[in-house]
């Protein structure tokens, strides 16, 4: 925590566990996942604890190292119309949900609406964004702090 009692904006691998974790379906799922793994189950009733969504397929930051391509860019509507209906059961039970890609997810035109939606509707204890840091402007960092996100730069 900092002087304002806000969670840290940028975290490293060693600070992924915080005291502000939310209790959700993911807690029981994590225990079930551990039991099934330890007993060598071949068919699992639990779902993955860690989910990484490659949410961006073309570089919108135009860095020299980003891959360029002709893909439909990720958006808030794609998340609601594709990812939630197809993966909602898994997303709601995960312990960690990472958003990453070949571009800057945090530079999406509707990212503020997307973050506000995730803050209210996604009970995952750890929501993680991978970024090069360029989109970390006050309107974005305020939402990231409110949602207790982890940001990997």
- Quaternary structure type: single chain
Structural class by SSE content: alpha/beta
What's the average pLDDT? 77
**Total strands:** 4
Strand percentage? 5-15%
H/E element order: HEHEHEHE
Helix content: 25-40%
Main sheet specs: 4 strands, parallel
**Integer-rounded radius of gyration:** 16 Å
Report the end-to-end length measured between terminal Cα atoms.
19 Å
- Shape annotation: elongated
Which strand order does the major sheet show?
Answer: 1-2-3-4
Number of helices: 4
Characteristic terms for this protein:
alpha/beta, four-stranded parallel β-sheet, 34% helix
What does this structure look like?
- The chain is of the alpha/beta class and 153 residues long.
- Helix 3 (111-121) links the parallel strand 2 and strand 3.
- The chain is elongated and about 45 Å long.
- Helices cover 34% and strands 14% of the residues.
- The chain is built from 4 helices and 4 strands.
- Helix 3 (111-121) packs parallel to helix 4.
- Residues 7-23 have low confidence and may be disordered.
- Strands 1-2-3-4 form a 4-stranded parallel β-sheet, with no helix packed on it.
- The protein starts with 24 loop residues before the first helix and ends with a strand.
């Amino acid at each position: 925590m900092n002087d304002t009692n806000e969670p840290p904006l940028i975290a490293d691998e060693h600070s992924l566990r915080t005291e502000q974790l939310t209790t959700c379906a993911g807690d029981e799922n994590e225990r079930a996942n551990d039991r099934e793994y330890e007993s060598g189950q071949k068919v699992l009733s639990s779902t993955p604890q860690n989910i990484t969504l490659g949410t961006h397929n073309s570089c919108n930051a135009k860095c020299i190292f980003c891959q360029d391509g002709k893909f439909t860019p990720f958006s808030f509507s794609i998340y609601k119309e594709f990812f939630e209906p197809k993966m909602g059961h898994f997303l709601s039970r995960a312990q960690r949900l990472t958003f990453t890609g070949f571009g800057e997810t945090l530079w999406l035109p509707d990212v503020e609406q997307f973050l506000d939606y995730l803050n209210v509707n996604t009970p995952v204890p750890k929501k993680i964004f991978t970024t090069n840091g360029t989109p970390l402007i006050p309107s974005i960092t305020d939402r990231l702090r409110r949602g207790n996100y982890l940001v990997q730069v």
